[in-house]
Amino acid sequence: MGFLRRIESRLEGVFEGGIGRTFRSHVQPVELARKLTKEMDDNKVISVQQVYVPNAYTVFLAPADREQFLAYEARLRTELAGYLTEHARREGYSLPGRARVIIETADELEVGTFGIAAEMEETPPPVAMESAPPADALPAEFGGGAAAPVAAEPPVAPEPLVAPIPPVAPIIDPFAVDSPDAFAPATPEPAVTAAVTPPAPAEPPAAAPTAVASWTLVWPGGEVTIGGNALVIGRSKDCDVPLADGNVSRRHAELGRSEEGFVLRDLDSTNGTLVNGRRIRSATIGAGDEITIGMSTLRIEQRHG
Predict the structure, then answer these.
(1) 53: helix, strand or coil
(2) Tell me: the pLDDT tens digits for 177-209?
(3) Order of strands across the sheet with 296-304?
């Protein structure tokens, strides 16, 4: 029993722990469920109008006991959390947040011995994402559009070319001698000029449209464009990215844009959110990163068009 006292001493000041000992057979899920509800009953706090109970439970198992749950551990955690929620509803308890169960390995424990720590953990509200800046103001690596092409100045038409026509020499009638002005030089006619209009210059070809880059979140069930509003990922049909998976919480995670790129936040899900195999609560991600939620893998891709 020395180790059990060390666990309770280590958890002192954070939450009140309960230790359950069974026979030397492997721990069974029904034993965990029964002990979890007992911890909920033993740790209730009576307020003015409500009776509050812990909503976060950590189960410590021996390595051999936990190994038997590896094939369905995620579903087991979900089932135990639902069992606690239903128990709280039947007893009229108030949970400060969504019930969740975490399983950890304690190397010092023997087969058939397990420990449970209960904690009140309030679920934080979803973080409001800032509106994304205009596409042409984002850096190029985040899909910003290219600068608008500068319009070319219209060509200046040359002045009309004027070709002078030489004057026509007067015709003198040699037989008109009676007229004193017959041999007088005729008054030259004014020169007639003709204006030559040059051909109209050809219009310059229209500039090709500039391709605009966009970002898309892709998962096995579909894809959605990432705009200025944050995308909510979860099991609920009301989510922007619905995942039909029992291992996914109703509102599991939230993806939005920031000045550094994209920010992924876990909304206190039951089974957690992984980025490149590492569990996160909040992380800055980009193209090429793999997001694992339940049994689904999501990624961000850049599209041009």
Answers:
(1) coil
(2) 454 554 455 555 555 555 556 676 677 666 655
(3) 222-225, 213-219, 296-304, 290-293, 273-275, 278-280
241-259 residue pLDDT tens: 999 888 899 999 999 888 7
List helix spans (H) across the chain: 2-11, 29-42, 63-67, 73-91
Residue with tokens 């204006």: 195
Q: Six-digit token pair at 246?
A: 């029992």
pTM of the shown model: 0.39
pLDDT at residue 32, rounded to an integer: 93
The 3-state DSSP composition of the chain as helix, strand, coil percent (nearest 5) reads: 20, 30, 50
Where are any strands of DSSP class E within the chain? 17-21, 45-46, 51-52, 56-61, 100-105, 113-119, 161-164, 193-196, 213-219, 222-225, 231-234, 241-242, 253-258, 261-266, 273-275, 278-280, 282-285, 290-293, 296-304
Give the distance from CA 232 to its chain's centroid: 9
d(CA 142, CA 244): 30
pLDDT digit string, tens, across residues 7-24: 444 444 333 334 444 446
Radius of gyration of the chain (CA): 42
Burial 47-84 (b: 16+ CB within 10 A, else e): eeeeebbbbbbbbbbbeebbeebeeeebebbbbbbebb
**Residues contacting residue 167 through CB under 8 Å, at least 6 positions apart:** 188, 189, 190, 191
Quick one: tokens of 213? Answer: 């880059």
47 vs 120: CA distance, rounded Å: 14
